[in-house]
Design brief:
The structure is a homodimer of 238-residue chains. Helices cover 27% and strands 33% of the residues of chain A. Chain A is an alpha+beta fold and 238 residues long. Chain A has 2 domains: 63 residues, Orthogonal Bundle (Arc Repressor Mutant, subunit A); 156 residues, Chorismate lyase-like (Chorismate lyase, 3-Layer(aba) Sandwich), CATH 3.40.1410. In chain A, the strands form 3 sheets. The first copy, chain A, has a 6-stranded antiparallel beta sheet with strand order 4-5-6-9-8-7. In chain A, helix 1 crosses helix 3. The two termini of chain A are 42 Å apart. At the A-B interface, helix 3, strand 7 and strand 10 of A face helix 3, strand 7 and strand 10 of B. Strand 7 of chain A pairs antiparallel with strand 10 of chain B. Chain A binds a DNA duplex (19 and 19 nucleotides) through helix 3.
Amino acid sequence: MGTTRLEAVQEPKHRHLKTVIGEALDSEFAVGQILPNERELAARFGVARATLRQALEQLTLEGRLQRRRGVGTTVAPPRMGVDVSTSSQDWPGGPGDAWESAGCLLTAPPTAVSIALGTDSDGDEQVHTVRRTLVRHGQPVAAELLYVPQVFAPEGTDVPSATAGAVEVLRALRRLPLDGQDRAVELGSAGADDAKQLDRLPGAPVLVVTTRYVSADRTAAVSVATYRADTCRLTFGD
Amino acid sequence: MGTTRLEAVQEPKHRHLKTVIGEALDSEFAVGQILPNERELAARFGVARATLRQALEQLTLEGRLQRRRGVGTTVAPPRMGVDVSTSSQDWPGGPGDAWESAGCLLTAPPTAVSIALGTDSDGDEQVHTVRRTLVRHGQPVAAELLYVPQVFAPEGTDVPSATAGAVEVLRALRRLPLDGQDRAVELGSAGADDAKQLDRLPGAPVLVVTTRYVSADRTAAVSVATYRADTCRLTFGD
DNA sequence: GAGTGGTCTAGACCACACG
DNA sequence: GTGTGGTCTAGACCACTCA
């Protein structure tokens, strides 16, 4: 990155800067390599630190950089593919499911989930709420909240330990016939809880995958899974 | 939004601000309603404009606000569901396909696409490149580049008009047997061309859907579709 | 304690939309 | 022309990591 100044262009500086740095990443940097710090880079390009940060933030959003406070900015590896295909028709917690249960509570779900579940949408009705995590290459890549009305998993209610409760709820689900599921993907930002599990700051961009599990014409469970948008590419194999 | 000051908290101001404004949106504002301008809001909450903007940017990313220069900040409608299910196994341009062709060129594709196509990955080999747009409710929501090696669509090569060329390439594809497809979704940011078609600024967040069409064990086409992340929720019906 | 990225301020000017 | 969001600056302090 030998460049010292930006040429005069009509394009905003931060956008041009992003292009220049992006090209430098391709040609002059290896994965994992650490970049000069923000103050150094800003000086080198002759811009304010805030302007440089706009460019770095874009590159981070695109998964090309990783930044950690107190450490530095490093070149990110290519995103890993994570299979979320629906064709392996099965309940969560089934065979080949790599998620790890982290706990189970009874809570009143968010209203959007209440509606999907067809439970009392005034938000009073409590449902089983199973927290799970997906780890790949030693790194947490997704956090999930699975909502199951008590009707579908009566056994789980009185279990002492939280993780044992999760196992119990998942087991109850698997005893039901699975008639179908539908799925949606959208952009979101990590809440405080998800952020902690994903080892990111709150507000970090995530891909939110919402799955509705249908059994006998009723919604038996709703899963809201948030995948780290910087490190994941969701794949739908055929 | 009668609030005037933020309480002292340990949480960063911009994050707390985002929460406060987000709650106000739910309770005090209607879809399409216009918010006070940035300077006004910043003054009202007793923060610098840049801090306020961090909060508004987050809410925009989550699809809760729409901002247009020279106009103002308005409350966004809920995201619309866009079906991208792979189960309706068909070539692009088939029946029920709502995309509109916008042009057709011969270009050397990006290296990632070259690799997927199995064409000469030195990037010299030219392929048909069809530009298409998806419009919903009078609003452009996605822009696509469809890459088809000339082997699979020889007829399209010498057509005079660009849009006629697109039709020709799509017609040639439909004559091939479609043996399968796979798909991936990831977060990206709009390039200059996509931004223009999507009526957004370059760098706007998009959901990038990459589809590989397989015919007789060969990749016959690769589609790279970018959906506006602020307005779209991708759905995979079953 | 030194160095990093994260937050925040108080200004300024620009590009764009609209009457 | 007026008002909006978008860009940019030159500082400051904080939270975190690591030697």
